Amino acid sequence: MPYDTAFLAGLLIGLVIGLLVGGAIGALILRVATRWVEKFTPRYWRAFGTVLASAVVAMVVNFIAGIFIGLLGRAGGLPLATIKLISFPVGAVIGFLISATMIRALIRRPDGSTLPFGRACLIALVQALVGIAILAVLFACLYAIRHALGLGPAPSVSR
């Protein structure tokens, strides 16, 4: 079934807006994580570029890895649920390593030296943990609002 141009344009605009908003929030988180780990704060636009580059590279690499995992899984006779279960942690590890690599390559210490890869991994870990904590608080707030409005649990789908 072909997609119409309005759908594809909306998808592209949503992707760009999501990258920009996510990059803006991610840059703030990266600055805080770098401050905690390395005791200096990178410039905002440097952090924004690092987060944006990490996101784009991770999307491309995870897309390619997902294709390979799917092809190998289906060739091996694995059910789709198992393939999805395998691809999530693989994608998370790939994303983490790309983030650490981009931090090492693009964030410089005040004296101009590069960060060791281990320190970049620590910054990426703090960044990931802060992001997970923010998402947990956001989901808890949304759950509390839904409960306060009396909407209850989401309806189950019967088949």
Beta-strand content bin: under 5%
Class of secondary structure makeup: mainly alpha
Oligomer: single chain
Count of runs of 4 or more consecutive helical residues: 4
Q: What fraction, in percent, of the residue positions are helical?
A: over 70%
- Largest beta-sheet details: none
Q: Any low-confidence stretches, pLDDT <50, length ≥5?
A: none
How far is the N terminus from the C terminus?
Answer: 25 Å
What is the arithmetic mean of pLDDT?
Answer: 91
Please give the number of β-strands. 0
The run of helices and strands is HHHH
Estimate the global geometry from the Cα principal axes.
globular
Please state the CA-atom Rg, rounded to the nearest Å: 19 Å
Task: Tell me what you see in this structure.
- This protein has 159 residues and is mostly helical.
- The protein has a domain at 54-145.
- Helix content is 79%, strand content 0%.
- The chain has helices spanning 5-38, 44-75, 80-106, 117-148.
- Helix 1 crosses helix 2 (44-75), helix 1 crosses helix 4 (117-148) and helix 3 crosses helix 4 (117-148).
- The longest helix has 34 residues, at 5-38.
- The protein is globular.
- The two termini are 25 Å apart.
- The mean pLDDT is 91.
Task: Based on the model shown, name its key terms.
159 residues
